[in-house]
Amino acid sequence: MTPITDPRTFLTTAPPSAPIWTLIDAFDAAANGMTNPEAEERLEKIDDEHFLAWKALVHAINAFYVDDRPALEKAILDIPPNSPPAVLIPLFNAWGGKTDPDGGSPLGNAGRVVIELYKRVIFAVHPVKLLADQAEEALRQGMIDHFELMASRVLRELHELKSPEAVALAIRYAQRCLSLLDETGEDSIDFFSVIVRALGRKDGLIALAFALVGRDDQAAASAFSGAAQAEGTSRFMDPQTREIATLASEILLEDARLRKEAVDTPEASTQEAAVTEAATAPSTTTPSAEKLVPASTTTARLRQSGKASCAGQLDLFEQEPA
Amino acid sequence: MTLTELKIALHGRVPADANAEYRKNWYEAVDRFFQAAQSDEASLDELLNPLPVKARYVGPGPWLDAIRDSYRA
Is residue B71 part of a domain? Predict the structure, then answer.
């Protein structure tokens, strides 16, 4: 049987019930980023060998657009190597960052039209990066509402990406926003609420906790503890992460207590080394005097301002961990 | 306390009698946890470098054209 090189050639002759229509409907939906559950359901019922390569290609394109790499790997394996859709395998491999056995790009063996297609479907710069650049420019120009709007979109889009690194990336970006707002002295927005709306309470508190470590360790401890105990869904927190967050809270509180004791005693200088050793064992980090300085002006200002990026939320979780 | 010190302290919380596999899993879990921590020195480019390549929707035509024009039976 002649392999299908272009399903469109059957459109004028295929009867309405022919599976080629199902394939075309599902293919159109995948290539346009639309959902067509009815076509997808019908596609899964097709087991005619003549269509299997194209069925796998629809799966591959769907996975490609939602950045679902395991699903894409599986779909590629389902495309017979000598079938017409197999000419696109180099494109999928290049997108996934794979290299050939000789270390070159998989596109090196692809046809010119496939290379052109790759250039057409791939953004040179990720749209989220462009948005983040615009958000920071807005902040530099003092356009705070604009910054809040775009940073919120960046947070949401990062948090919704399917790649395994995306959630951590969203949490790191939230810390960057808090830090930028802190540097500019901007206190007209409650950015912690923006973070919570975008990431949820648990992941938002993790972001805040990391942002506070080294600035106000007690507040950081409360945020870690709050994240571990908060209700709601989280893409970052699992039972082990919750255990680590709880331990992080305990370590920070214990460290703060030991430092306070060291400052309060006449032998503070000699006890400082012991404090650091106790807190970070088996750390080899050299203690420094600045570690004995209490909360930085950063957090002090956050605490003083009811509208600062996160100060308004600090009291909500500043309870001693259980 | 710095993030590095906190990470070292968390590594150190593995039970003293833990076997090698438990110890390795614990260290990896702590390292994964700290993948969500952001260094103040990192630029926006460095921060967003792990972003996957983003694909744009171009409709079915270019895909089908590429297959038709590239396939040699």
Answer: no
